[in-house]
Amino acid sequence: MDTSVAEGRRWLALASVAAAQFLAVMDAFIVNVAIPSIRVDLHASAAEIQSVVAVYQIAYAALLITGGRLGDIAGRRRVFLLGVVGFTLASLWCGLSGSALTLIAARAAQGAAAALMVPQVLASIHTLFPDAARARAFAVLGVAIGLGAATGFMLGGWLVALDLAGLGWRAIFWVNVPVGVAIVLAASVLVPPMPRSDSMRLDMSGATLLFTGLIGLLVPLMFGRELGWPWWLWLMMAAAAGVLVGFVQHQRASERRHGMPLIDLALFEDRVFVAGIGATFCFFLGNLSFYFVLTLYLQNGLGFAPIDAALIVLPLAFAFVIGSRLATGRTRRRGIPALIDGCFVQAAGLAGTMLLVGTVAEPSMAMLMVPLAVFGYGQGMVLAPLFSAVLALVRHAHAGAGSGMLTTTQQVANGTGVVLVGAVYFAERAAHGERWATLAALAALAWTIAGTIGFLQRMRPAPVSLPAPARSPSRP
Fold first, then answer.
1. Is the dihedral of CA 123, 127, 128, 129 positive or negative?
2. Rounded to an integer, what distance in angstroms lies between the CA atom of residue 375 and that of residue 316?
3. 102: helix, coil or strand?
4. Measured between alpha carbons, how far is 476 from 467 in angstroms, rounded to an integer?
5. Which of these CATH numbers, 2.40.50.870, 3.80.10.10, 3.20.20.450, 1.20.1250.20, describes 7-193+262-459?
6. What is the pLDDT of residues 229-238, one digit of tens each?
7. Cα dihedral 366/367/368/370 (nearest 10)
8. CA distance 12 to 19
9. pTM assigned to the model
């Protein structure tokens, strides 16, 4: 913890880095709303439109641990600013794309830039805030995530419907530019220099192995159904799995030589951390994929305009904000069982949504809003305290690597979820139509909630370090 930073400046710095998290989340949700419009305008195939969403997550995930380690080595503020600038420029490129493949490449660049930007958010909270205030800081981050989702849905629907200057869906990417510029200016002034390790160096061979393994494993999942699962895709995935095994061995060898491995393998000796990684993977496996399927159902299945689809999901986003805001106190009192309760609330919202899809041919906007709001409230109860619980035992010197591992798990799960649940949706849609496709995809998502509960049960004996916040006149 950087004790030299004044209390008031900590919260101003948090506002700056949380704004970047807001931007990253807003971008994910704003793209979801525009998917049908992008698909029509660029004549994209099912695999290409999945890739527009998933390749961002895959590039993001493949470079996140590297981004976290770079923050430890070069300084978190410097790497954070570099990531925001790269994200802003990549957003310009997305808006200029004239084909699906160009947009996919631009989205990959966006994900790579986000991999530099986002690990510094979690690491900065972990470094700047003492234990007494860290839970409150994570709660603020949860609110930023919820507001990013709400803004993404509403702004995306509004921009596509308004069709400013004939730009259509392209405006959803260009809106990132002024936001990115504002974050760079604010963070340059408000975020203090944070400790860096001059003795550390980047493990380039390890970074290359990790990137190659993740890309080789996830890209075939994106295009397998479209290509008919040829033998060479299975061979590619098997080779990628071998590369990832080699990466782990490489990290162990580097540790034995007293080198600077990309991953702090000692973290995996902690049972709570490993279970937390599993819970994080399952939770986010059903996160972005839920909104991917929901957007297709609302716009393609029910014929809602983008702005109407955004309005339907708006109560969900605000319920997420409320659930996230209240989660800190609840988790402080009850620990891991409070997160499990959140999963059951989320499951109730999912069951209500499935009931409507299965029994009502054309549910109204109001009917859909209710179970979706329950779902969002449950998500908010889990997300922010889950991050805090998993990172609670990470040493400050390895905050960047630890947060990078956690966020890598999050983004691998997001990308994998879109690919796998999207594959279920499109396969069922071709065979049985929109309603059965949506029901099959939502049923697959129910298993992700069950997996989250299972891993949280493994964390249950351990206390969650969320002490009562100290009173302060500068409390936001």
1. positive
2. 7
3. helix
4. 18
5. 1.20.1250.20
6. 888 999 999 9
7. 80
8. 11
9. 0.74
